[in-house]
Design goal:
The chain has 60 residues and is an all-alpha fold. It has helices at 5-14, 18-25, 29-37, 42-56. The relative contact order is 0.23.
């Protein structure tokens, strides 16, 4: 299983692209890709999941 599979699955299920998450969080796309390669701290994981939920609801 890849690191951060829960985040990857949530993004895919909601049709949210990595660049959208990065834009929402105010980081670059390469940064979010780098984050997804290693286990995230609880704080970062929470921020990414909240971003996915907000984008999916159209709150970007």
């Amino acid at each position: 299983m890849k690191a951060n599979q829960t985040i990857r699955d949530a993004a895919k299920r909601n049709g949210v692209k990595h660049w959208q998450i990065a834009e929402y969080l105010g980081i670059s796309e390469p940064t979010i890709m780098r984050w997804l390669r290693i286990p995230l701290s609880g704080e970062k994981e929470k921020a990414v999941m909240e971003a996915i939920e907000a984008i999916a609801k159209g709150e970007s």
